[in-house]
Amino acid sequence: MKGGMGGLMKQAKQMQEQMQKAQEKLAEEEVTGQAGGGMVQVTMTCKYSVRKVTIDPSLMEDNDAEMLEDLVTAAMNDGLGKVESRSQELMGDVTGGLGNIPGLGDMFK
């Protein structure tokens, strides 16, 4: 039984190292959220750090601040959705489906 526990601890340590590498990768990986057919774009890391906001100059000609604010908000939300999807995908690769075990799922978010 002792060998089994040692093996389990070794696997847990390996998984922890893999999760750390995945977190580091997410901090560097970028996604771009878009709105208005790409007229507003928000680039952010998969650790929720916004790197860049790009607004097509034609949107500023109308001086409709409310519409522009809505497009920036929509682009941010699109980017956040992409971050969440990518994070789940990468962490799912690391955990090998352990996140689907009842009671353990929240440990891998």
From TrEMBL:
Superkingdom per UniProt: Bacteria
Entry keyword DNA-binding: yes
Keyword DNA-binding: yes
Regions that span the bilayer: none
Subcellular location: Cytoplasm, Nucleoid
InterPro entries: YbaB-like_sf, YbaB/EbfC
Subunit description: Homodimer.
Name of this protein: Nucleoid-associated protein ACERLL_07640
